[in-house]
Amino acid sequence: MQNEEKVFNTAVEATLEVMGGKWKPVILFHLTFGKKRNGEFLRLIPDISQKVLTQQLFELVRDGIINRISYNQVPPKVEYELTEYGWSLKAILHAMCRWGDGYIDKKYGDKGKVLFQPPGPEEEITE
């Protein structure tokens, strides 16, 4: 923790400081369904570049939102998972998903499509 004072106009700004941007919420959302490896993220988020993914993961690890688990094996294996603190974002992320579903229906109707479907009924986004 830093000693200098940091002033926010609202607490929403503090939340966005950690998980704001185009890709961090998407990365975090996918992690609410379990550990992920680099290649899995690239498949789940096809529009993200490797460079941006690496940067976003680094920042989320630095901020204590996710853990980077490195296995000592050949070939190298690295996984990412939410920290206990990161899990506190699950309700926010799933609420954003539900809101987005409604927005897609309202704006695009039958022309809107969401490619990602949660892994199973036990992982339903109902919180």
From TrEMBL:
Key words, A-Z: DNA-binding, Transcription, Transcription regulation
Domain of life assignment: Bacteria
UniProt signal peptide: none
Domain annotation HTH hxlR-type: ranges: 10-108
Protein name from the UniProt record: HTH-type transcriptional regulator YtcD
The species this protein was found in: Paenibacillus glycanilyticus
